[in-house]
Amino acid sequence: MSPLLLRQGLVVGTSSTRVADVLVDGGVIREIAERVAAPAGTTVMDVEGCWVGPGLVDLHAHLREPGREEAETIDSAARAAAIGGYSAVVAMPNTEPALDNAALVAYVLARGATTPIDVAVAGAITQGRRGELLAPMAEMAALGVRLFTDDGMGVQNPSVMRRALTYAKPLGVRLAQHCEDEALAAGGVMNEGALSSRLGLAGRPALSEEIMVMRDLELVRLTGCPLHFLHLSTARSLALVIAARREGLPVTCEVAPHHFTLDEGALSDFDPNFKVHPPLRATRDVEALRVALARGDVDAVATDHAPHAPELKDLPFDEAPAGMLGLEHAASLTYEALGVGEADPITFFSLLSRGPARIAQLRAQDERVRHGAHGAAMLEGEDANLVVFDPAQRWTVSRDSLQSRAVNTPYNHRAMTGRVRTLIAKGSLVVDEGRLT
Amino acid sequence: MKSLRGQSLLSLEDLSREAIVEILDTAETFVEVNQRTIKKVPALKGRVVASLFFEESTRTRLSFETAAKRLSADVLSLAMASSSVKKGESLRDTIATVDALGIDAVVMRHHSSGAALQVSRYVPHVRVINGGDGQHQHPTQGLLDAFTVRQIVAEREGTRGPESGAELFQGLKILIVGDLRHSRVARSDVNAYVTLGAQVRVAAPGTLLPDDLSSWPVTVADNFEEALAWADVVGLLRLQQERGTGSYVPTLHEFTATHGLTIERAQRLNPATIIMHPGPINRGVEIDSRVVDRPSTAIDRQVTNGVPIRMAVLYLSVAGTGETI
Q1: The domain defined by A55-359 carries CATH number 3.20.20.140
Q2: What are phi and psi of B18, to 5 degrees?
Q3: Which candidate from A196, A200, A316 shows the least CB-CB separation from B91?
Q4: Chain A hits for B115, Cβ within 8 Å
Q5: What secondary structure does DSSP assign to B143-180, as a single string?
Q6: Is B147 part of the contact surface with chain A (CB cutoff 8 Å)?
Q7: Identical fold at A4-52+379-436 and A55-359?
Q8: Interface of B with A in 103-142 (CB under 8 A)
Q9: pLDDT value at position B240?
């Protein structure tokens, strides 16, 4: 790539912002200054009014490869991620077969390496994600895996979870839990409450999530192993984790855009595109999530991008699979939740890039890890995984123009404010003027 | 919805009092047709009604198909056991196939809540009549139950249903007993009765009440015996053992002991109390066999009334246009 000069954007650091020029050359941030002279052959982009920050990092994307390539491939997901501003994504292990061994992890890493962004892998905690026997975490960690989860389903057996935490601790990795007690969720398909009772749909009570959060906080207290809470969806879950973190427990948490933008009311028409686990919750939960986001109480926004083939999302509601697309609209939805014009750019990049990069250890300059560093502080010399976000741009989601193979977005036809304009990843210009290069 | 004319019938939730009364009054005119030697009118001649029962049914299916035939409609009836659904054909494709044959209406029953609404999105030009979807709604059952109650009360008061509109429901006390949690009949019955102006109480073991009963327009009976004495109408619900309801109560015997209409309870009832059950009955569980067979129960009348109600629903929905009201 020829040198690239981003002129007069708002450069968003870890604790301050300033209007400056950013020169990218040789895959790194070469210079940041009020005015940078463009060397010969430099591509100059005027990004006045835009935010210039570290490329976004998604902790939670279902890439579906191997096994469900009709819904998504590593390649199509990477393109969707790039359009959404992500320079790195963490691939969830609930593929078919599950990513529970070094060979499969190596396969996904190799496929990911051919895409324009960095693809990291979360390995399974248990063999086949069955929640019974530990997966070979050390072998996967040797390939650079830093996050382990059985996501799609939490580890139900507390004894197995305790053993997993105890085993993982000396490996320097972090476990991540999908908190839902399936016995209490009892096959439910939406949030339990007045609406589920009216619609005659079996409910998944908020408590089925909260009770596993409570259990796992105590297991972290017991074992001392770091744990990340995936897609927390209720006010109480979030309050529990925030309080535990203040107490000093090594816990972090993420929320997903659909949980802070949509409530259970979206299900009144039995549209399976709104079916997700944990389910869309009550309005008060949505509000609590938004408040926590703006306060900086949440460590990360993660998409839980979950593509499904159209025929599966056409099934009757109780038979359709849970999950919705997320990569292509998460940045806009987060910006909107932070208050549009009032949104704090530092919080924005903390939620979408620096927080998740820290949790996934994507800043570690570890030679076993193939990818570059993400979540940059916007300092000279850092890897040039950068995004330009235009807070003024308005656009409308259309399921017909997604990069993802699947079309199960719950936001079809929704008007959005703020959009990714440019993405530089792995030293190349990947997205320019909102389009893949 | 102010009238069913030209509309699909998916739920009783959004049907107004006038719309329900219109259906009941229309059904009243079809009662007479069913008593003729030649039980047929040409109202839907040349129209095609598809009857798609993805879940087992005896009375609802027979009743709907009888109703359609008495209106002179052609009936396409799909028996799921021998259909491509068994080969894994999806609901959407099955509906598209039937629609391609040229139909005016679909009567459907499905084990998934919301399936009828989903189908109405697939074929917006076809009227969809919900014959029961999962644990959500069973609108024609709610209508025929309300029709039966109005008919009996009107007979006793020496008046006729159509002249009374919804008047006979004002202050009427209705007790619904049993598995409300899993019952689509209960949801539709409550909608119909409350919209028409009746007071509804419910009685069930705690586990068979819905998760959020506070959002229902009913009160919970603290004392079953007292509630039985209070009620003008007792509507019993079927314990749906095929849905695993068995595990919600310790034993069937205990359910009968606490919430069954036993012979002893029936003997204490006011003789005028109307006893109803949507069927199929678990004899000896919700209701003692000897009580079922008493002439005072309205259970057979509910089945009989299913035909004129479904004729009215098909007629208004398929023949009616939005402009006529």
Answers
A1: yes
A2: -65, -35
A3: A316
A4: 270, 316-317
A5: HHHHHHHHHHHHHHTT--HHHHTTGGGTT-EEEEES--
A6: no
A7: no
A8: 110-115, 117-118, 133-137
A9: 82
Q: Which two tokens stand for residue A183?
A: 């016995």
Residue B36's contacts (CB-CB under 8 Å, 6 or more residues apart) are none
Number of other CB atoms surrounding residue B156 within 10 Å: 11
Q: Is A331 helix (H, G, I), strand (E, B) or coil?
A: helix
- Whether this prediction's pTM lies above 0.80 is answered by yes
Check B92 against A269: CB less than 8 A apart.
no
Q: What is the DSSP letter of A54?
A: E
Q: How does pLDDT run across B55-64, given as a tens digit for each residue?
A: 888 899 999 9
CATH of the domain spanning A4-52+379-436 = 2.30.40.10
Domain boundaries along the sequence of chain A: 4-52+379-436, 55-359
| Active site residues per annotation of A | 304
Tell me how far CA of residue A131 lies from CA of A101, A155, B190, in angstroms.
15, 5, 43
Within a 10 A sphere around the Cβ of B100, how many other Cβ atoms? 8
ipTM (interface predicted TM): 0.89
**In this complex, is the C-beta atom of B211 within 8 Å of any C-beta atom belonging to chain A?**
yes
- pLDDT tens for B129-164 read 999 999 999 999 999 999 999 999 999 999 888 888
* Secondary-structure class of domain B17-137+304-318 per CATH: alpha beta
Type of residue found at A12: V
Q: Name, in order, each residue with C-beta under 8 angstroms of B226's C-beta and a sequence gap of 6 or more.
A: none
- DSSP for B28-41 reads HHHHHHTTSSS---
State mean pLDDT over A379-401.
96
Q: For residue A200, give the chain B residue with the closest CA.
A: B136
Beta-strand ranges (E) seen in A302-368 are: none
CB atoms within 10 A of CB B101: 9
* Second CATH level (architecture) for the domain B139-299: 3-Layer(aba) Sandwich (3.40)
Would you call B213 an interface residue with chain A, using a CB distance cutoff of 8 Å? Answer: yes
